[in-house]
Hints:
The structure holds two protein chains of two kinds.
Chain A: H1 2-20, H2 26-33, H3 42-62, H4 83-99, H5 103-109, H6 115-139
Chain B: H1 6-27, H2 33-41, H3 50-69, H4 81-97, H5 102-111, H6 115-138
Amino acid sequence: MKAAIAALICGILFGLGLSISEMINPARVIGFLDVAGDWDLTLMLVMGSALIVTVVGFPLITRKAHPLLADKFSLPTKTRLDMPLISGAVLFGIGWGLAGLCPGPALAGMASLEPGIFLFVAAMIAGQYIGIRLEQALVR
Amino acid sequence: MIEPNVAGGLIGGALIGISSVLMLLLLGRITGIAGILTGVITWNKADGLSWRMAFVAGLVLGAVLYQVFIGPLPLQMQAGGPLLIAAGLLVGIGTRLGSGCTSGHGVCGIARRSPRSFASTGTFMVVAVITVFVMRHVLS
């Protein structure tokens, strides 16, 4: 229960952050990616600002024996640079560039009730199911 | 160049960073929205479902709070129906195969100095820039 409340508060902070930084706006995202057009560096400021906080904070936290509300840290275990990683990043990059939407802004953007966002989120969920099937096929 | 949102970008980015640091400190988890979503849509009770649902709810609630207390969400769609579906599918498949998105790899993974996250972030950034270049300056 405590963990769920903590996650809810973290989600609210994240959603507020995406809204205040305008990363919820595909026009801002495409504006950053469009280096040959009217370039908009807002995304770089957002990522830079977020990274200052995480780059300083993360090492201080992982030094601890365990997180405050859980028995252990659940961190990614894969270390190899493999084909699924790179091909996945390529597919994600194309999708991100086409719509200017990635998972966080798309989910938070549902608050606007914009129909296009719901269309994107539905397709993204379908895509994740397809991705899970592909992962299972690749493991075999 | 488009006028960047400097104050919003820096404040919003810091909130995203603080959210990610708190998630690690309290739950011991990486704030990767794509991965959090996967746990929800696959109804994966073994890996903690309630905190994932709470985070996604918070994400939307954060954007709702923005609309209530600050103003209308800045949201200008950059793609229509079929393109949104294609983009959503690619983002869904890509984030599954590639084990993460802008938040998990771009903000958290880089702070963990994960080589996989550096490779992923570099790849999806370059591919997204190329995608936008092709869409905006070659095809149109």
